[in-house]
Design a protein that fits this description.
By secondary structure, this protein is of the alpha+beta class. It is built from eight helices and seven strands, in the order ααααααββαβββββα. The chain has helices at 2-28, 40-53, 55-58, 86-95, 109-122, 135-143, 174-182, 254-265; strands at residues 153-154, 157-158, 194-199, 204-212, 216-221, 226-230, 234-240. Strand 1 and strand 2 (157-158) form a beta hairpin. The longest helix has 27 residues, at 2-28.
Length: 272
């Protein structure tokens, strides 16, 4: 009987230990649950991770090899082939995709969820809705009266001072586009922050701040060149976290804004 009691005690202890180990594993790796990190602060944190580790392949705007500031990775702005659910996307980011250049990452659970939250902002396909504007008139307004082409590039034509808009209709809803035209300062992601730099050789560099660490900063300058500058070689370095784009409320009529929204909504990416 004593042997039986000892055996039962060992079995019970084993079950308890197994349960504790399982609980600890779940706490360390929160993959099997809904995303607990979806606040605006988490999205911003995820955007920082994306810019420093993902943008070189998938592009700053998530368009991958399809355009914009893209690289050679997959287009993340529409329906994802891998990662339809948040849990699936978490798994892809954690373990990679065998046979592709998408390798496993080294981020912890919270960072992975924050990255998921940011990638979802890239993958928000335009919601179906009735467009009241005229896309042809919008194209003319974009190029002339609105002056948008001076800063934004579409189809290889336009300025480089602001994010490219080729294919923007695939990733932004008409409501979101209209809000960006009327209230551009409402939400400025770190990937859209600009910098003004003066080097110790007297060179002035301005453009988009891509990444930064203790010793260096990477910038996409106004000519579309990727620059990596050592901080020890800088005389001044200023970050502008505000949107350089003015509000067009009161500058363009409601009808003209609707026309530009219709034009931007018509810009769709071709799926490869």
């Amino acid at each position: 009987m004593q042997i039986l009691r000892i055996s039962l005690s060992i079995s019970t202890l084993g079950l308890v230990l197994a349960g504790l180990l399982s609980l600890a594993a779940q706490q360390q790796n929160p993959k099997r649950q809904s995303n607990p990190f979806t606040s605006s602060e988490d999205v911003v944190a995820g955007s920082r991770i994306y810019r420093s580790h993902c943008a070189s392949c998938h592009g700053l705007d998530g368009s991958g090899g399809g355009g914009g500031h893209g690289g050679q990775g997959a287009d993340l702005t529409g329906q994802l082939r891998y990662g339809a659910s948040d849990e699936e996307l978490y798994s892809v980011l954690e373990t990679g995709i065998p046979g592709t250049e998408m390798v496993a990452t080294f981020f912890d659970g919270k960072q992975l969820w924050q990255l998921v939250s940011f990638v979802r902002t890239l993958a928000k396909a335009a919601q179906p809705g009735t467009l009241v504007g005229n896309a042809e008139r919008g194209a003319l307004l974009f190029a002339k009266k609105g002056g948008c082409v001076q800063c934004h590039m579409i189809g290889g034509k336009g300025g480089r001072k602001a994010p490219p808009l080729g294919g923007i209709g695939s990733s932004r809803s008409s409501k979101s586009l209209k809000n960006s035209i009327l209230r551009p300062a409402e939400q400025v992601l770190p990937s859209h922050w600009t910098v003004q730099i003066l080097t110790n050789r007297g060179e002035k560099v301005s453009g988009q701040r891509l990444n930064e660490d203790t010793f260096s900063i990477q910038v996409l300058d106004s000519k579309g060149r990727l620059r990596s500058l050592m901080k020890k070689d800088l005389v001044s370095y200023n970050i502008n976290k505000k949107s350089a784009m003015p509000s067009y409320e009161g500058i363009l009529s409601d009808e003209e804004i609707d026309d530009i929204v219709a034009y931007l909504s018509s810009l769709r990416r071709k799926r490869l």
